[in-house]
C-alpha cells in the first residue's frame, strides 16, 4: 500500500473512532497512535495523517455542510460512519487542501469507500465528490493543485 494511501486510511480509521465516540477531540492523538501502533508501526510519514485529521476537524462545519448539500437524499447522521468520514477526508482534500490534486482526492476517497464501505459506497462517494468538483469548476473557484502530490 502506498504511503499516502496508508496515511489516508489511518486518518479515516482515526476519524471513524472520533465520530463513533461522540467527537471527543481529547482522544484523537491516542487513537491516531493506536492506529499506527497496530497497523503501521514502522510508518515514516505520520504527519500526513495528522494533517488530514487536523484539517478535517478544523473545517468540520464547512465540510459537513458540503456533504449535506450534495448528498441530498441522505441526512448526515444517516450516512454510515465509514462513508461519512471518507467523504470528510475527500471534501477536505478536494475543496480545502491546496496540495492535493482533485483527481487524487476523489480517486483515493473512492478506493477507501470500496475497501472499507458497503457495496455502493464507492459510487456514492464518487457521486458526492464529483458533484462538488463540478460546482467548484463551474464557479471558477478551483484552487491551484500541485499535480505531483498523491
Structure, explained:
The protein has 150 residues and is mostly helical. Helices cover 69% and strands 0% of the residues. It has helices at 3-20, 28-39, 46-58, 60-70, 81-96, 102-116, 121-138. The model is unreliable at 144-150 (pLDDT under 50).
Structural class determined from secondary elements: mainly alpha
The low-confidence runs, each spanning 5 or more residues with pLDDT under 50, are 144-150
Number of strands: 0
Calculate Rg over CA atoms.
14 Å
SS strand fraction: under 5%
Strand/helix succession: HHHHHHH
Tertiary shape: globular
What percent of the residues sit in helical stretches (DSSP H or I)? 55-70%
Annotation field: number of helices: 7
Could you describe the largest sheet, including whether it forms a barrel?
Answer: none
Q: How many angstroms separate the termini? A: 13 Å
Average pLDDT confidence is 90
Outline the secondary-structure elements.
Blueprint: H1 3-20, H2 28-39, H3 46-58, H4 60-70, H5 81-96, H6 102-116, H7 121-138
Helix pairs in contact: 1-2, 1-3, 1-5, 3-5, 4-5, 5-6, 5-7, 6-7
Amino acid at each position: 500500500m502506498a504511503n499516502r494511501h496508508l496515511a489516508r486510511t489511518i486518518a479515516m480509521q482515526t476519524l471513524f473512532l472520533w465520530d463513533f465516540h461522540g467527537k471527543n477531540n481529547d482522544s484523537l492523538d491516542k487513537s491516531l497512535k493506536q492506529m499506527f501502533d497496530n497497523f503501521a508501526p514502522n510508518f515514516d510519514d505520520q504527519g500526513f495523517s495528522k494533517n488530514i485529521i487536523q484539517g478535517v476537524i478544523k473545517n468540520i462545519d464547512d465540510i459537513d455542510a458540503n456533504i449535506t448539500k450534495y448528498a441530498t437524499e441522505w441526512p448526515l447522521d444517516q450516512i454510515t460512519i465509514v462513508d461519512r468520514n471518507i467523504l470528510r477526508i475527500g471534501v477536505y482534500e478536494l475543496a480545502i487542501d491546496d496540495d492535493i490534486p482533485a483527481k487524487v482526492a476523489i480517486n483515493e476517497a473512492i478506493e477507501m469507500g470500496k475497501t472499507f464501505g458497503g457495496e455502493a459506497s464507492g459510487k456514492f462517494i464518487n457521486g458526492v465528490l464529483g458533484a462538488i468538483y463540478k460546482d467548484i469548476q463551474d464557479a471558477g473557484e478551483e484552487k491551484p493543485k500541485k499535480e505531483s502530490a498523491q
